[in-house]
Automatic annotation (TrEMBL), chains A, B:
Cytoplasm among keywords: no
Domain Xylose isomerase-like TIM barrel: start-end pairs: 23-269
Protein name, as recorded: Sugar phosphate isomerase/epimerase
Keyword entries, A-Z: Isomerase
Record's keyword annotation contains Isomerase: yes
Entry-linked Pfam families: AP_endonuc_2
Signal peptide coordinates: none
Molecular functions per Gene Ontology: isomerase activity
Length: 288, 288
């Protein structure tokens, strides 16, 4: 079986699979790349995870995720920065363990407002400062910090970086080799400024990751897990993919779908469904 | 009892009350103005509704709502435009029936993507065209069409106008006397560009309505009805109110909260709670 050559299965789509099961499901579905998550990597330990990745023959397209660094100065912020430095090391190691074409990209989610705090501009400033604190470590490790704008529905409790333009305002304060952005269709599809901002990201060499997931209605009881495979929802994925390719991104394209029904299914079946949905509906060219 | 002199109770906050009950609850809570909805007005008929409004002694701050005009050319679009023309007449009549200081403002929600349609830019164009078709009617009736940007969580199924900047791009194609915008904190609080866009709206005389509701987490099972009274959530309402006032808006400020728990409560109790929450948490000056 052979899937689209640029498809990468993000592990969040098969959330409950172990690292080994996720690697096997990806490979057996003919998919050439995987987007890893830190938790299943930690379950087996970094060294063993790297060995498993090498054995799989898969490319690694990113590691999810760092960030969550909107806390004010103090122990919580220091702990977050420490943890992000470890994530940078893990990203470098896992990308080195992956097949040629792997990408040393660490996806960053800023985090939400601290408890009881209503100062959104302040939290956004602290996210910027944290990235500034980490950019040197990333550059030294050859890792790109990929700032992921999150859908505004998550601005309070998950990610205070809400638009691609805002992510770029932030990333552009640092070298492109160290700080880029994620374009995730689920998070940015609604943005009237998307074409201009994707083009801007391309001009600056800032697109570190392109992820596709669809926006499905009616939203389920938990918005976080109300996503769909490509083609299941309202997003004009070929239009967004064309923007991203015109902007010069030619890397692996991750399918990252938080959906409880997928999580309860067999990871192998999910990988096969993902490959089929991606081929039909994502509008990604075989060669960028 | 006397509430904040610029508070208006939007009828959606007491959704299940009849027009008469909503007017009574508003007045008895010492609130001087009300934002009306078309459905409870239609229940008694426009003529009687106007009489009830006059009897109440309340100002009318807006009528909700027109719009829902993203259908492609055909009978559905024609019906939507016809219905909006009726809404314009109702707005003029109800504002005339209200106490001095009433505002002939018709709140417009664009509507979502038509079934099976993924062309978001196309739907946005059609919303613009529909406003163009209605602007002359509004001007002739002395009514302001107030385009309401909706939170991006509703872009697919409710409102394709997603940011204040986008609403202004649209409104500014028409005279300010006919087309303005709504600033609703629930919908726009997350926007990193909010200060600049509120200032722009003020410079152009485009702020036709200011509505306050809070963003509460965790979101309930239905995002639409997961709002809170001022002070219950994450929005820095005094900061947004200061922006709106600096932009020159001095009118009545509506509290519009879609929340099932409020809907199940006694409208009189809800009006009293609203007045208390507004006075404490909205950050609106007594005189703009």
């Amino acid at each position: 079986m052979s899937a689209h050559p640029r498809l990468s299965l993000n592990q969040a789509t098969v959330k409950h699979a172990s690292l080994l099961d996720a690697l096997d499901a990806t490979r057996e579905a003919g998919i050439g790349a995987i987007g890893l998550w830190r938790e299943p990597v930690a379950e087996v330990g970094l060294e063993k995870a790297c060995a498993l990745v090498t054995d799989s023959g898969l490319r690694v397209s990113s590691l999810c995720r760092g960030g969550f660094f909107t806390a004010p100065p103090g122990p919580a912020r220091a702990a977050a920065l420490h943890d992000n430095r470890r994530a940078i090391e893990e990203t470098a190691a896992l990308a080195a363990a992956g097949a040629p074409g792997s990408a040393p990209v660490l996806v960053l989610v800023a985090g939400g407002l601290p408890d009881g705090d209503r100062d959104l501009p302040g939290a956004r400033e602290r996210a910027r400062d944290a990235i500034g604190d980490l950019a040197g470590d990333a550059a030294a490790a050859g890792v790109v910090l990929a700032v992921e704008p999150m859908h505004p529905v998550f601005a309070a409790d998950r990610g205070v970086v809400s638009t691609l333009g805002q992510a770029l305002d932030l990333a552009e304060q640092f070298p492109a080799a160290a700080v880029g952005v994620v374009v995730d269709t689920y998070h940015v599809w609604w943005d009237p400024d998307l074409p201009a901002q994707v083009a801007r990201a391309g001009r600056g060499g800032r697109i570190a990751s392109y992820q596709v997931a669809d926006w499905v209605t009616p939203l389920g009881p938990d918005v976080l897990t109300s996503r769909g495979l490509p083609g299941e929802g309202h997003v004009d994925l070929p239009a967004v993919s064309a923007l991203v390719e015109r902007a010069g991104f030619g890397g692996d394209v991750e399918v990252e779908v938080f959906d409880r029904a997928l999580w309860e299914d067999d990871p192998r079946a999910v990988a096969v469904r993902t490959a089929a949905a991606f081929a039909v509906a994502a509008g990604v060219r075989v060669r960028a």
